[in-house]
């Protein structure tokens, strides 16, 4: 990354919660208007992966796993993520359970739904382009990375919403790879999935899926996302108001139907696509798929049924996996802490008699626990001590050698001073 030297660090804002952002009714289904004629095909654009760091505070599990259900909307550019987020918001409003909404797209202009936490309030996407000398996609990746460094704050806010919100909706950038394949995407999904029932919605556009090659590419992508995110996935076939979705439903459930559609096209990639479809049969059995329209609200009941099923799957299959992951991370950070403590004790010992600073030297009055800085059962400290001892021994050995060398050279110069022509037989 070409960073301007004088601006290596960029200030990022605080996480701001927009408490006034409540659905107002403008999101009612009849007001959700998307233009059929505006529907472009699916695209992907490249972006490089970058690294991000995150506080480990998100691991602090408060033991309450009662929600809210987190729904993450991902999908290719223009598949309808934002329109569907708007539609889901309206539907939840209608059901009397308004969602809490988070926008993770730093480059979006004006989301058509009320946003409670907006990445644009934290990171200025245009400034990122300027400071890091990046193009639009690189700046989206970097903005998300910067935001992910503060994601523990978002997690804490979501924890507080358990009593007031049943759902959290998260809209992601149009460039799907920015979220799915970046370090920050992993940090965000792992942090959420560790604490809340989390479901991934893969939005795909039925209009572009008419082509069997595009369809199978989309399904392969969805499959890779299932393995990458380790979260329940719902393939959501959007825009069914614009095209009869029967073909897609058939292709998912019946390999022969897909294969004959493929053969009729006689494309050179047909054989590969056919093999892929065969391989994906197992995947189709594992994932939920629903047909919806963000435009007219078709399929919303199916959508929420699929979400409920996925939440059950999360509880039984995915949560145990995440609990193991958290345990491993905790153990790692505990080990690190222990090492740091060992180092601190060593420094204290080096600086003076720290034991004498305790009320009862070496003993805690309340618990009777030994607080002495020495004789601790700390393997890392023992190792370090052994190294120090070895160094000391090496040091004294070289001191003996030096002494011997000095003694001999003194003797040699004395001999020369007395006019002796004899040279020393050996030098140290
Ligand atoms: N006919 C029809 N068009 C839709 C539907 N949903 C979205 N669209 C149209 O598809 C286009 C893209 O919709 P968005 O909701 O902006 O898609 P997106 O995936 O959020 O787009 P990016 O964030 O830019 O990737 C818009 O022109 C919408 O009007 C739908 O259900 N039916």
Automatic annotation (TrEMBL):
Ranges of biased composition (kind: Acidic residues): 375-396
Asked if the Swiss-Prot or TrEMBL record annotates the protein with the keyword Protein transport, the reply is: no
* EC number(s) given by UniProt: 3.6.5.-
Annotated Polar residues bias = 415-428
Compartments (UniProt record):
Cytoplasm; Nucleus
Give the Basic and acidic residues compositional bias ranges. 1-12, 404-414
According to the UniProt entry, its GO molecular function terms are: GTP binding; GTPase activity
Please give the residue ranges the record annotates as the region Disordered: 1-61, 368-428
Q: Name one GO cellular component term.
A: nucleus
Which portions of the chain have biased composition (kind: Low complexity)?
41-55
**Record keywords:** Coiled coil, Cytoplasm, GTP-binding, Hydrolase, Nucleotide-binding, Nucleus
What is this protein's function per UniProt? Answer: Small GTPase required for proper nuclear import of RNA polymerase II (RNAPII). May act at an RNAP assembly step prior to nuclear import.
Q: Which family does it belong to?
A: Belongs to the GPN-loop GTPase family.
Q: How does it assemble?
A: Binds to RNA polymerase II.
Report what the protein is called: GPN-loop GTPase
Organism lineage: Eukaryota, Metazoa, Ecdysozoa, Arthropoda, Hexapoda
């Amino acid at each position: 990354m070409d960073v301007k030297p004088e601006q290596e660090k960029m200030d990022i804002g605080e996480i701001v919660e927009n408490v006034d952002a409540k659905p107002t009714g403008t999101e009612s289904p009849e007001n959700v208007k998307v233009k059929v004629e505006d529907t472009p095909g699916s695209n992907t654009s490249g972006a490089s992966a970058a690294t991000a760091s995150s506080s480990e505070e998100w691991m602090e599990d408060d033991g309450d796993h009662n929600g809210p259900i987190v729904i993450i909307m991902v999908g290719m550019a223009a598949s309808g993520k934002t329109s569907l987020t708007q539609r889901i918001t309206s539907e939840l409003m209608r059901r009397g359970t308004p969602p809490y909404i988070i926008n993770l797209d730093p480059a979006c202009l004006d989301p058509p739904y009320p946003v409670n936490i907006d990445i644009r309030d934290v990171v200025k996407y245009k400034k990122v382009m300027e400071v890091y000398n990046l193009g639009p996609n690189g700046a989206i990746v970097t903005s998300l990375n910067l935001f992910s460094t503060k994601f523990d704050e978002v997690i804490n806010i979501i924890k507080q919403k358990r009593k007031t919100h049943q759902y959290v909706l998260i809209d992601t950038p149009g460039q799907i790879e920015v979220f799915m394949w970046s370090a920050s995407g992993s940090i965000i999904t792992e942090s959420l999935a560790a604490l809340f029932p989390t479901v991934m919605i893969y939005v795909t556009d039925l209009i572009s899926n008419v082509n069997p090659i595009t369809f199978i590419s989309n399904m392969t992508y969805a499959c890779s996302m299932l393995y990458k995110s380790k979260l329940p996935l719902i393939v959501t076939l959007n825009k069914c108001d614009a095209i009869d979705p029967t073909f897609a439903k058939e292709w998912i459930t019946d390999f022969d139907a897909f294969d004959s559609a493929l053969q009729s096209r006689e494309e050179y990639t047909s054989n590969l696509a056919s093999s892929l479809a065969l391989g994906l049969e197992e995947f189709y059995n594992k994932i939920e798929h629903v047909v919806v329209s963000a435009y007219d609200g078709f399929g919303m009941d199916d959508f929420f049924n699929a979400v409920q099923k996925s939440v059950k799957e999360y509880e039984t299959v995915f949560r145990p996996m995440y609990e193991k992951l958290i345990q491993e991370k905790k153990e790692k950070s505990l080990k690190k802490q222990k090492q740091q403590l060992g180092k601190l004790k060593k420094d204290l010992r080096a600086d003076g008699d720290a034991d004498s600073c305790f009320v009862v030297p070496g003993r805690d009055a309340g618990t009777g626990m030994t607080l002495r800085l020495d004789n601790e059962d700390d393997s890392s400290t023992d190792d370090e001590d052994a190294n120090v001892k070895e160094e000391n021994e090496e040091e004294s050995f070289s001191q003996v050698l030096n002494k011997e060398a000095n003694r001999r050279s003194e003797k040699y110069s004395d001999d020369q001073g007395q006019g002796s022509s004899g040279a020393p037989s050996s030098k140290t």
